[in-house]
Amino acid sequence: MKTLVIISHPELEESGSQQFLVQAVDDLPDVTLHHLEGRYPDGKIDVKAEQALLRQYDRILFQFPFYWYSSPPLLKKWQDDVLTEHFAFGYRGDKLNGKDFGMVLVIGLPEKDYQTGGAEGFSISELTKPFQAMAKKVGMDYVKPLTIFQFPYKTEEEKMDLLIQYRQYLSMKNPDSLKSREEWLLKELDQTNLETLPEDQASFILEEVVELIEDNRMELDELRLHIDNYED
Amino acid sequence: MKTLVIISHPELEESGSQQFLVQAVDDLPDVTLHHLEGRYPDGKIDVKAEQALLRQYDRILFQFPFYWYSSPPLLKKWQDDVLTEHFAFGYRGDKLNGKDFGMVLVIGLPEKDYQTGGAEGFSISELTKPFQAMAKKVGMDYVKPLTIFQFPYKTEEEKMDLLIQYRQYLSMKNPDSLKSREEWLLKELDQTNLETLPEDQASFILEEVVELIEDNRMELDELRLHIDNYED
């Protein structure tokens, strides 16, 4: 699976969270990071080049800071310019059909604020409706967004956890499924020489393996319970 | 009530609907139209000037074509640049508190497409959540948007109706209340010399008066029914 990450951030170099994410995936061969403000500093988007790029990938992601509950202006301009009729929708506008669409949202406030009655008053599922509608319109499969709340307050362990989640989000077909996570982890382990890794990373990968085995056991236990019920 | 209409449209001169709207209100003394792309052709927004402008008005409206279920890029940039902490939210960020916020949305597809199961799949109420959240955050009162679907297909009579709705939306405190509409119409009639108007406009205003009287009668009838029920 080939993944294109369209990053929009007016000051990418200044953003700790974005720098962390960029470095987290620089070894993944099937992932391309595409920073719009870096590529188009004058704001003039090369529509043909962007459309040609989109065709090469199976999963298209938007990655941006969730300012005012939406994308930075250049990503909106990209939508308006690149997702044209006859390319993305309308007659023969099927060029994005069947691809995955997802988002990596960097959010400054805590998750609990995003609900009815919370400080922000609306959930992320509500606030991202315009992007859900876009995915529907162009025939893409909407993948649950990866939301990153209050990055600067994260502990080292939380950051490591985020790193794994992010790598999975960019390279796994179904990041929520246990089977996919298992396959992904076995592949990662196969490519990794634990002895050459810094100790904290090695132990972290081992923790992930343990967690996965535990999840597997829970699922097996649950299945066994179901079978017992049927036999009664 | 003083109203500021912040218009965002990359090609205002080319838009029939926007030209119609601009001309519909050029005689209203308490309404200011503020076209962002015209004012800032290089995209660099004068934040202090914009914040000073906002303070002078009681109702702030965003008027734009609803491309990809959101605003054009320059209006998003305006939000990101102008609605700063300590001005619009946060400590002492109360400068917009209590003002009205509304939107005039120009939409290319028919209204029936915007619902669950419809071609677009989402309602306008769902797709405008990010703006509702913005209004909440800055303490503004969210006014039901004025939605204009498929302007080019409107008949002359529908356009006249839109003209009245739009003028009311820009100058009436509660555009939905019968009492407000009554007062507004009496004021308009007071200022208008019917004999100098083109015949179609004069007859249209008379139709509005008739409609208002009918609405009044219906409301009175309904009240009478309630009273009868109580007396039984």
From TrEMBL, chains A, B:
<dbReference type="InterPro" id="IPR046980">
    <property type="entry name" value="KefG/KefF"/>
</dbReference>
<protein>
    <submittedName>
        <fullName>NAD(P)H-dependent oxidoreductase</fullName>
    </submittedName>
</protein>
<dbReference type="InterPro" id="IPR003680">
    <property type="entry name" value="Flavodoxin_fold"/>
</dbReference>
<dbReference type="InterPro" id="IPR029039">
    <property type="entry name" value="Flavoprotein-like_sf"/>
</dbReference>
<dbReference type="Pfam" id="PF02525">
    <property type="entry name" value="Flavodoxin_2"/>
</dbReference>
<keyword id="KW-0560">Oxidoreductase</keyword>
<feature type="domain" description="Flavodoxin-like fold">
    <location>
        <begin position="1"/>
        <end position="169"/>
    </location>
</feature>
